[in-house]
Structure formats: C-alpha cells, structure tokens
Amino acid sequence: MRSQDKIRNFSIIAHIDHGKSTLADRLLEQCQAVSQREMEEQLLDNMDLERERGITIKARAVRMEYKADDGETYHINLIDTPGHVDFNYEVSRSLAACEGALLVVDAAQGIEAQTLGNTYLAIDAGLEVLPIVNKIDLPAADPQRVKQEIEDIIGVPAMDAPEISAKMGINIHDVMEDIVANVPAPNGDENKPLRALIFDSQYDPYKGVIVYMRLMDGHIKAGMKVKMMATGAEFQVIECGYLHPLGLSPQDALYAGEVGYFTASIKKVSDTRVGDTVTEVDNPTSEPLAGYRPAQPMVYCGIYTEDGSKYPDLRDALEKLQLNDAALSFEPESSVALGFGFRCGFLGMLHMEIIQERLEREFDLNLVTTLPSVIYEIVKTDGTTVYCDNPHDYPDPAQIEEAREPFVKASIITPQEFVGNIMPMCQERRSIFKDMVYLDSTLVELHYEMPTNEIIYDFFDALKARTKGYASLDYELSDYRKSDLVKVDMLLNGDQVDALSFIAHKDMAYARARRICEKLKDNIPRQLFEVPIQAAIGGKVIARETVKAMRKDVLAKCYGGDITRKKKLLEKQKEGKKKMRSLGTVQVPTEAFLAVLKLDDE
Amino acid sequence: MNKLGLYIHIPFCASKCSYCDFYSFAANDNQINEYIKALIKEIKSWSEKCKQYVVDTVYFGGGTPSLIGGERLAEIIKTIYNSFNVGLDAEITVECNPDSINEDLLLNLKKVNVNRLSIGVQAMQDDMLKRLSRRHTALQAKHAVKLAKKYGFNNISLDLMYALPNQTIDMVLDSLNQMLELEPVHLSCYALKVEEGTPLSKQNPILPDEDISADMYNAICETLKKHGFEHYEISNWAKSGYYSRHNSRYWDLSEYLGIGSSAHSLFNGKRFEYSANINDFILGVKPIEEEHINGFGQAEEFIMLALRTSKGINSFEYEQKFNKPFKPIAKALKKYIAYGFVQNIDNTWNFTEKGFLVSNTILSDVLTSVE
Lengths: 602, 371
Description:
The complex is a heterodimer. By secondary structure, chain A is of the alpha+beta class. Helices cover 26% and strands 34% of the residues of chain A. An 8-stranded antiparallel β-sheet of chain A has the order 10-9-15-6-7-14-11-12. The chains are: A alpha+beta, B alpha/beta. Chains A and B meet through helix 12 of A and strand 6, helix 8, helix 9, strand 10 and helix 11 of B.
C-alpha cells in the first residue's frame, strides 16, 4: 500500500482582503511550482470577475511539491474556497476534501467576523486549523494581541503561529513547515472500492467536464468505469491526473489521499454535482460520502435582453454558463412587457448578480431583469399543492387554501457594538429572534429565523452597511411556514405590466408598492400624455403616482441655416427611443426596470 | 431661373452676452477690415457659380452686423449687387442690436436697398438685460425701433427671449406688450437654452421649469394671436405678408449660400460650412461639406424642417419631391391627431401650437417609424 504520509491537503480561510490570493502565490513560489515569469499575479483566481470583485467564485485546486527541512519531499494540495454565503455548500465540500485549513488573520485588524463562519465550518468538518498572522509589515501590526484573540475566540493554539507578510514574502517558509508538521496526512484505504469526493468541476470545450476530486479510498485510472452515486450517471474515465498550477498533469492512476481530476467526455457539469461521490461501477462502495446536497436554487428572476432580437444569444449564453455551473437553472418564459426571456434560478443574490454580470460582460448582452422571487408553497382549495416562483403563476386568491413562504435559519456574527444596528433591521424584516451567544468579550453570534424573501433583496448589503462590513451572515433553508401573502400588480396607464408584479407578505406589500411607484415615476420620462402608475392587489389600488404629461420638448432655433445640431439631437432622441419598451401606450426605458430592481440599494 | 438666398456672417460683437456660445467676439478695427476684405473677395469668387440664380433674399447675421457700421455694410451689399443677379424685390435683412442703431447706419442701409431689420430687443426689463450682458436698456431699444421707423424701415422684426433666469410669465408678457407697442410686423420668440461653458451657466441660474416655460410659450401664442399675428413657424410670428422669406428657405429646403466664418449653405444639393475661425476665413480657407448625420437623408431633413412651419407638409408635394410614399409618415403622424398635437386637413399635415411645443418627441418618433 502506498504511503499517504507525504501528502498534505489544505484550504485557506481569510477575510476578503486579508491576502489569501497573495499568500497562495507565495506558497507556489516556495515550491517553485511556477516560475516567477510564468506566474500570473494571483494565479488561483482566474476569472476576471473574481479579480475585480476580489472574491473567489469557483473553487480551484493546485498541487505543489515541497522539499521540507526534514529532507523529505511532500505533495501539498491547496484547495481554494469561495467566500460568500451563497456558496456555503461549495465551501463545505472544499473543506471536506482537506485535513487542514490555514486561517489567515490580519496582524493589525485581528480576526474578522466574516472568517469565523468558515472557520467553524472547518472545525466542524474535523480539520486542523492553523492560524497564520499576516501583514506583520504594517505599522499597526500587533501579532501578540492577534494571537491571543485567536485563542480566545476560536480556541485553537496560536502562540506558535507563523508571523508573515505575504506581500513582502516574509516567513513564507514557516508556513510551509507548519503545513508539513501540523496538517494531518490523509488516511484513506486504497484497497477499498473507489470513493472520491467531487468538490468542483469545470467545462472544457475539448475534454468535456473536468471533475475536481479528492480520493478518499481506492484508486482511479483511465479506462475505469465510474458512477456518480447521486446522479447515477456512469462514465468511462479517459484521463486522470494532478492539478498543476499551469494546467493538468495526466497520470496513470490516482490513489487514496490524493487530489486531482478526471475527464470522461462528460457533456454537462450537472452530471457531476459538487459533493457527489464517485465510485467504480464494477466494484462499487456501499456507502457514499456524507454531506451531499443537490444544488437548490433559492432565488428566481426573469432575465431578458434589452434588444428583444438577442433572445437566441441569451439562450446560447445561458447554456454555456450552465456547462460550468450546475447551480444555475433556467427555462423559457415570456412577458408582455419584456418579450421572450428565461426564468432563472440561483443559489442566492450574489450568484444571481455574478451570472447577470457574466452574461453582460462575457457575452456582450444588455439585460433587463425582473424582481427576484423565492419559491412559495401554495395549498389550493382543491387540495393540491403548487410551488410558485413567478408572480405570473400565482393562483387566484379565491383558490388558495393556505400560502406558505420559505424561512431560513440565519446566523450573524458581529462585533457586539453593532448589535443595536442589526436587531431593528431584522425586526423590520419579520425575523424571529432566537438567541444571542457571546463568542468572546467583543464578538457575538445572533440567531434568527427569517423569511427568505426578506433576506434575498438586500439584507446582506444592508448588514454590511450597518456594521461597517464587520458582520458575517450564514443561512440555510429551514422550512415553509404559513404566511399572509399577496400578489401585487403594477399598472401603467391602466395596463398591467407583468414584469413588475411581485409576491410579498401583506404587511410589506404597501411600502414596497409605494417605493416601486415612486421609482417608476422618477425613471419614466414624461410622455405626451399623463401616465398614472398604480399598484393593486386584486382590483384594489394600494399606491399611486402620476407621471405628468410632457409640456415642452422643442429646439427653438435653427441658427443661420445650421441644422446639424438639430439633426444630432433628433438622432440622439431616436436612439434613446429604441431603448424604450412600449408597454401599451407608454414608453418605458430599461433604466426604470433596473431602478425597480435596485429598489433597496439606497 | 432658380432662386437663391444669400447669408452673410459678421462674427463680431461689441461684447459677449452672458448666454452666447457662438463664435463671435469683440474685434479691433484692423481685424474687422481684414475680415471684410476677405468677405468681399469670397463673395466675388461665388459670382460665376451663381450666374444661373436670382438672389431674392439677403440676410446679414451675426454676431452683430450693425456693429461694423453702415458704410462697411453698404460696401458689402454693393459687392453683392455687382456679383449676383439680385432680384428687384429682394428681401434684404440686417440683424441689429439697439445700441448700434443710429442715423448714419440707417441712412447707409437705406441707400443700398436694405428693407428689413431684425432687432435684438430680447427683454424690456433693464435688470434682466443687464443680467444677460446686453449693452442696451429698454428705453434705448424703444428709441432704436422708433428711429428705424422714422427712416422708413417698416419691415421690422423684434427678438424676444423667454424662460430667462428668475423670469415669470408676467415679465414675459410685460416685455412682449412693450414690444407690441412699437408695432413690429414680425416677432421671433426663443426660449433661453443655457449652454455649457457660458458665463451664464457658471452663475447656476434659477430657470423656469418645463411647465412654466410651456406656459410662457402658450401666453406668447395667445397674446400674439390677439394682436393679429400669424404663428407661421415654431418660434416665429408675423403679420400677413411679412413672413421672413430668407428664414423660410431653411424650412422648405430652398437653396441658400452662406458666406463668412461658420456660415452654412445648402447649395446645389450639398450642405457645407466655412470654418468657424475667422483667421481661416481671412486666409481664404474654402468651405467643407457638413458632417453627415446617419439617418438623415433629404427627405428626413424635409420632414424635420417643414413641420416646423404652420404650413406643414403637403403629401403630394413630398411624394413628388422625393419620389417616396408619404404613407408611413402619415401613419406615424396620425396617432397624434387625437391628442391635438397634429392636424391633417386635406393632404396637408402640420403641428398645432400644442404640437410645436413637443415637436422633438413627435419628430423623433415619426423619423424612427420611417426608418
């Protein structure tokens, strides 16, 4: 049996700007896994969007060879993790593929609430947590205080933690030695049937899906017939190997304890779900790895193109994105106001924003999206239960026996001083306070039960705004509860605009309707006639605004026969007009839809 | 013989008005002389190409043409008579500011058949005139108009500006009524547009909003109707028989030749312009073709310009002129009839006064539907 004691598998947990990517680069340098010249800055994050947003959206992994001070060569696998609550499940699977985690803490700012969530995930997964004190080059650095804080809050020994500066390249060697000494070696059994954990996958146009996995037991090799235990899909392995920093490195076989990839002409990533267990068809394991959860969209919205003729392009783009993102779901829908588009499901708001941004950026599409919605559970008077994520499909109130909305269990970790800001904010969102736990003298953890639709719009942003970015949010779907729901329709000049309808709790409907009316009023230019904007529940109008009729739009003078100016002006107006949607008799600019969507940003 | 309008640009002003963003400036005598020398040379150079034309309107615009004085203006006009076939009944207009109207100017202009004056009165409140950096008072303006009449100028047009900083409807009507007492036969009323970079824009003026500005326009329309004026173009009113024949060329795509820095022409089917820089003009730099704006062929230009007038568009005339069906335009215009923005009588389509006010919105829609 092959020895696994020269293998180390670990992740890095860090606050958003505490230098995770920089540290990863330094570790790669230490191993000379990549030459300086070859190294693109911050190699691990290789999507543009990730770099700009400073967050890692999709996990990646890399294998390094390190010659340690004890003279031995170790195989070290760094598995990267995404850093947003939308991707908590993906984080948990990445962590499950490791034996240890580096907790990178800023030597000046100390431990941040946002890293705590992931740290607890790592501890719960049984990982060895190794604290690293980074940015010791900063004038305000106070490593001793920070170490004490780590011990107090997280309860792991920190006094011997390496003190480093990833930016300046100070003491990186200590980190490598720390990993070798303190991350436990894997202890799988290569003689058992194959059990490999999928922690990520990526579509490659030439090889099909590349599945990133951690082998727990057994081995995998080219030609082997494998099965995804949750989806039941079977494939013949074409290639397997290690993940080197600059690409794939094919091997004859991979064994228990190792991290790597395989390809098998897999057409879509949805066949290779994160968290699923890979086993051999002819010699299957009886027990899949624990913790698999199918990707479950929490938020839905309609996505349309500004230019209706781009609908086929949108379909192509979504299909391409879906190749790489099993959590993205979509199906065609149509709207009177917006034409043909897709109803899309997302893990959360960030996931939704990322997809929208990628569609716009990578596929050059201008989008119009509808208000996001959660899935409601409606028991009808005929005894049937329907699930509804689209206001358009919301049953007639007379047919509803009981309406239910999803709730999440939310946990908020925050410095104590912000509790007073957070509590009213949760209350306004119909949340039920459960308890508050002091993690140490300054950090507290709040537990709430919250309606999902209150969390999806803006809660995370509002939380960050009211806690100067210090609070962290973690939530998971818990259950459906009976709720007083209403469907609110928006009418322009008496005509219903389907794309603007929304479902809300009765107590929240009025305020929301008012604000949408106001936003529309501010964003719909004056028309040649007065345009009433109404919000109505059933036939009853609950809010109203009016866009006054345009009075004056004229260029008074053509100076000395120079009509260029006027032509340009009219041409500009014509262009502007093309960006308008004709809703009945009313011209509505795309911005109006966007403004309504961004209702809660202020 | 084809008819031609001649436009002569005089880019000089005694001082800049606070709202003006045109190429005009206070020049010294030497510069003015250089410019006029070039202007005369340039006028002569067009003589040959215009042999087939009768010039039936001449218009001196600026700047302030009256600023250069009657003798120089007369010299230019004489050159025009020598170089072109000027019609016997040609309309010859000179733009004047009240502060540069004097007996000498009027005498000189009379001698060379100038028969129409367009006077920039703008407002009749001295503090407002000051705010606009106009160089005259209300009283001076009245004296100037009376003096012009005394010298036999009966075809006088006055300019009025509205939507001025802190202006009320009453102030607009006060200005207008004082002007009407001077019995002009023509009035041009323009809404102020604050252009970026002008001294006025830097003062962050408080301007009447869209609604008040529209009310001002309506009040002007109403007042002038009562006084027997015909509203023949968006911003122009005249007593019967006194429409500006020169300006009308701009609206019906008749030919006009503009000479002088920044002067525009529509001549022989082409639009071209001289450089706005007077030094270029003095050096004899020739005009260049105007920038082509996508989506604007001759037909589109015609729609845009002809609809500025109360005469509007005759569908047969349009079809004959451009060899294109008028139907799509009629269809686009038709939907505005119910709102009272557009009128269709027999085969003629035109904006109502209410339609004039929102003409850009309607035009951009009409032009889009023609595309």
